[in-house]
Amino acid sequence: MATIIYPSPIFGPVHSRRLGLSLGINLMPADGKICTFDCVYCECGFNGDHRPHLPRPTRHEVATALEERLRLMAAEQQRPDVLTFAGNGEPTAHPQFEEIIDDTLRLRNIYCPEAKVSVLSNATMLHRESVRRALMRVDNNIQKLDTVSPEYINKVDRPTGRYDVDEVIAHLKSFHGHVIIQTMFMKGDELDNTGEAFVAPWLQVVKAIRPQSVMIYTIDRETPMHGLQKATHQELDSIRDRVVAEGIACTASY
After folding, report:
1. Can you tell me the mean pLDDT for 37-49?
2. What is the DSSP string of 157-194?
């Protein structure tokens, strides 16, 4: 099985199908995966298969590496569209996340003021006030909500700690629109969330959150669990159109 373990703390730039030319910021160790989810579809594989031996990068290490890369890109007249917190696990779980966001915004303003700062998060750390405070300052606060079914979450996202979807939804509402909802739609044995039983309650929650936009997508790379299948173009288009009909911008990535 092919998996992707990203360099740390900086990787790319890469061409993101949703965000453009993206310079990645990975707050996890470079030799493995630490995540508060253990998703069956994660391109980085299962947590247990890639346990790291190195520590997380420090705030200083992240800022130094980011500035070096931005200087190099500027010298080569290459400008990122976005600085994206992603990689080998949940970025907001880093103990210095808020301070790292401060540094990133400062460096962005110096070297590439047109670039957006994005955070790809699974929403498991929204109970931390410092995390919510930092996310209010970034351009793209992208939070995962694959479903509102606790049973499905336990089978697919597989939280490694306590996860209460109702609490997560309440935190997502607390951003008052400064949030982008990201949802993976896919199929598999007893894991299909493309049907009405899953889409309708998810859509009701999205309406209640009133995000600035929604990103829906499906499997794009090899997954650690075998037998998973992509949602079809027609299924994603239908879900997207229902979100748009509620007055919420939505994109579908196939």
Report:
1. 96
2. T--SS---HHHHHHHHHTTTT--EEEEE-EE-TT----
